Amino acid sequence: MMHGVATSLILFFIAYGAFHYSVDDLQGIQAFGTGLATILIFTVTLQVALDTSYWTYINFITIIGSVVFYLSLTLFMYSNLFATSYLGSEKKVYSSPAFWFTLVLTVVILMVPVVAAR
Question: How many of the other CB atoms lie within 10 Å of CB of 84?
Answer without folding.
Answer: 12
